[in-house]
Amino acid sequence: MEIPVNPFKHAIAKGERQIGLWSHLTGNITTEVISQSGFDWIVLDMEHGPNEIPTIIRQLQAMKGGTASPVARPPWNDSVIIKRLLDTGCQTLLIPYVQTREEAEAAVAATRYPTAGIRGVAGGTRASAYGRRKEYLTRASEEICLLVQVETAEALERIEDIASVDGVDGVFIGPSDLSASMGFIGKRDADEVHEAISGAAKRLAAVGKASGILGTSLPEADRFIEYGYVFVAVGSDTGVLARGADELAARFKGK
Q1: Which is it for the CA torsion 232, 201, 192, 181, positive or negative?
Q2: Distance CA 159, CA 65 (A)
Q3: Is position 48 annotated as part of the catalytic site?
Q4: Residue from 10, 24, 48, 194 carrying the catalytic annotation
């Protein structure tokens, strides 16, 4: 039984734009619905969403047959959580709050088996089809995609150093945290913030690493695409649900 190909990893390596959606709702039915919408990737969020390993597994099962590749975001750059997510079969991870080259190197090490890293070895995980993928232990890293988040002004100054770490496939800019660290909390549309965001895309392109970001409105997402970002999340399941419900209620409440 072959190791599954990670289409997201190979697409961003070639600079092919990938359009995604954030998922906070944790429900397998919700994830099944949005995974069939035509998106290229969907973030299963453990940092700001109430996800745990069992809910991640249910969502991975629900996404089978959909268009979107799952991207799991652990709550922290923690080797134990990274190991557990990889064992569930997640092939793409988005690691929050990476501040230095050393922290990026630690994230890479957590995704690699010895001697290349420190990932714990288990033979019967979901990732290995419960032991049926005989080459999983020797070939898993070929299809693992590691994305790291740069979300402070300090980390942005070191973005080339962070991005150049071997094993980092892409760098994701966190606009909300970045704007807060720049003194513009709640004002991610400030000119200074957008100047930094635009510059980050150019700097990442110059070192040959894919750039990613989340837009919270359609105009903002369009703007990020114009800046040259490669993998762009254009909304969230909570946002889609809230806006849709608000518009539907407003349409009929006045009758």
Answers
A1: positive
A2: 36
A3: yes
A4: 48
